[in-house]
Amino acid sequence: MTATPTVMTSNDPLTHGRAGVRQLVVSEWTKFRSVRSTWISLLIIFVAGVGFAALLAAVFANNWSHRPLADKVTFDPVRMAQAGIFISQFVVGVLGILMITSEYSTGSIRTTLAAVPRRSSVVAAKAIVLSVAVFVVAEITTFASFFTSQAILLAYGGKSLPAGSSFLKATAIPVVSISSPGVASAVFRTGLYLTIMAVVALGIGLILRHSTGAISLYVGVLLIVPLLIQLLPSNIGKPIEPRLPSNIGLAMSSASSRKTDFAGILMEPWLAAGLLVVYAAAVLGFGLWLFIKRDA
């Protein structure tokens, strides 16, 4: 049997670098899903999210009677259910960075740009595929984590709080329903936080083009910068702390929307989400500008 060669006609959009968004997204999705590490990373997000939620719920409930009063009155069952975000934010960061830096390390970025010279379209397709994949997995994880943790708290004798009640007034292990005020929004925002951080990581990868350096910078922003900010005088560090990405994540995972709960510590949840979107747009925009200006 002889193979018939495929001839690319002049009407093929890839010949002239005019591939539509749909074709580019399909191409990027093929590359994204064909790498085993992608599925491992997405699995880690789910396992870490649900696993940490179950573990912490069991630990808190089992030791509730022996916990200090301060821990009881400040216990937030919604934020506790999303404790896995600490691990997941690093996983989505690595996923976003490798989506672009892996092509530089293998040299396949030249092939990509030869097929699609319009670099903004390449970045847009990568951002779409990354965002959709992370968003779907993150939202499944955050809601599964919430229901798992609340079920465990109930099994240990937790009490459902009436609508509008405060966590601070709970005398027993507080358990909340997904229909309680602000709860569904908080769980949704947690998945949104992971999605936006993945886009931030993609931008960092575009800027540095080197996996190790980009991952180091991403981890440094989340872990090292908050420690350095604490060394600054309070009049300088305090206004900055609520605007750090790690604290933005804590704010977004909170079910409260009262400014008195966040003054000087965390931002109001949706305001924090908006600021994180600005960060992502700025980092990705700068990365795109460098991507267009520099050689492959």
Describe the structure in your own words.
- With 296 residues, this protein is mostly helical.
- The chain has one domain (21-293).
- 69% of the residues lie in helices and 1% in strands.
- The chain has a two-stranded parallel ribbon.
- Residues 1-17 and 259-263 have low confidence and may be disordered.
What kind of sheet is the major sheet?
Answer: 2 strands, parallel
Strand content range = under 5%
Which structural class do you get from the secondary structure elements?
mainly alpha
Record field, number of beta strands: 2
Oligomer: single chain
Shape: globular
User: Secondary-structure element sequence?
Assistant: HHHHHHHEEHHHHH
User: Biggest sheet: strands side by side, in what order?
Assistant: 1-2
How many helices? The count is 12
Radius of gyration: 22 Å
**Mean pLDDT, as a whole number?**
85
Descriptive labels:
mainly alpha; two-stranded parallel ribbon
What is the element layout, followed by pairings?
Blueprint: H1 21-33, H2 36-62, H3 69-73, H4 77-81, H5 85-106, H6 108-115, H7 119-155, E1 159-160, E2 174-175, H8 183-208, H9 211-230, H10 234-240, H11 245-252, H12 269-293
Helix pairs in contact: 1-7, 2-5, 2-7, 5-8, 5-9, 7-8, 8-9, 8-11, 8-12, 11-12
